[in-house]
Amino acid sequence: MAFIECDRLTHVYLKNTPMETVALRDVTLAIDEGEFVAIIGPTGSGKSTLVQHFNALLRPTSGSVRVAGQDLGDPKADLKRTRQQVGLLFQYPEHQLFEESVFEDVAFGPRNMGLNTDEVKTRVQEALTAVGLDPAAFGPRSPFALSGGEMRRVAAAGVLAMSPKVLVLDEPAAGLDPRGKVEILGRFRSLHAQRGITVVLITHDMDEAAALAQRVIVLDEGRVVMDGPARTVFTRADDLARLGLTVPTVTNVVRRLRGHGLRIRDDVLNADEARSAIREALGWN
Hints:
With about 280 residues, this protein is an alpha/beta fold.
């Protein structure tokens, strides 16, 4: 069942001014409950603009956006409820931290929801545990005394504490070292697998998209130009290249082997699949 629906969504910044910019053009798509979707595209293609419509941070210039069946353009729409259902973690989310302790930062959202003290405490503990931080050890600490990866996990916990149905991640691993990337992305993979939470990931890293997402949406100049299973989208290497995009590293290696005459399937997304495909092509199975 579709949880988020966009119908001919168009967004224009600074309309009717000399700086008018069309960021989205007639975008129609639906995201079902429980999906893990990656949104990719060149810089300026409209990715961040699109996801900010999912919790009404931005409003359509034309077209519509529905979340859980509610038209966000309706003056009577309950936007507070929508923003609880759709949690958005911006790029460099550690910049969203502001309280004196980790506990207080994660508790901010639940308190604003009017929850009682016990429920707030429970949500904070569950959210910190979900991102791999011990509530007893990290709760009293200043968020600004943590490592970059830990700060990012605290910011994610602050969103999770509001129990969203959808988690929107805008380049969540940007700027982290390799270990930090593995940790934070592993947490989001686990959240999707264990809680069934819908995840929408914006990324420039095709390896991330291939490792995490079941479906890939490609934007270019504000339009959806591809939308399908990750395995299918990443076989269109030439089309992606024309947009300035690459394919996952392993997929590219397999394409090169094909170019050298090895009769190997080209829809592999990870090292294990590549290993099996190479053995099959060489007749070693």
